[in-house]
Amino acid sequence: ASGLESMLNVSVFPLSKKFKKYNRFIFENRARFYETINVRLFAGRLNRQGKAQINWTLPSFSDAPSALAARIEARVTERGGRPAKNFLLLSIDPYNYYVGIDKSALRYGSMTLQKEIKLPVILLDSQGTEAPGRTLNYRIYHNEQHWWWEYSSSDRYRLRFKSDKNTKLIRKGTLISGRTPVLLSFTPQKQGKYLVEV
Fold first, then answer.
1. Which runs of E-coded beta strand occur in the chain?
2. What is the pLDDT of residue 191?
3. Which of 8, 91, 168, 180 is deepest in the core (most CB within 10 A)?
């Protein structure tokens, strides 16, 4: 493939981390958004040996909601114009440990007011081995949304819908990870949406 035109692209995108033993647990921060990275690493001709040396400095993955995947795609155009393609899919673990919450403790993703909720929480390393004895910080937020109709003149019938959201940190604390899931318990007092972060 000496001197042939070639191209190398990479895409990095979020991948929900899964562990077979804890398949009911969620190991991602769903409050974080990660924008897919698309980069062209190389566009040019291969050398006499049909090779190209390509270096890429990895971006920071500190805001990743969980694990990531990289799809590296190469394309070489033959002299007759036909493209030859191949790709490689790689897993990226931006974190050494992953916190999982078992949301199956909730019925259809909802809770009953004034009734204690117990959420099982586990800490695993990137290979899926339990990591006991580590401090886990948790925060529980409550979000209320209010709405009403607002209009400046009833003669003109200019009805407008208004809404307002109010999010408050209602509780924070620590848990110690174990060889089995530990329970994070709390009792929802008000109607609205709750966000639990560990």
1. 5-15, 25-26, 37-45, 67-77, 83-92, 97-102, 117-125, 135-150, 160-176, 182-186, 193-197
2. 87
3. 8
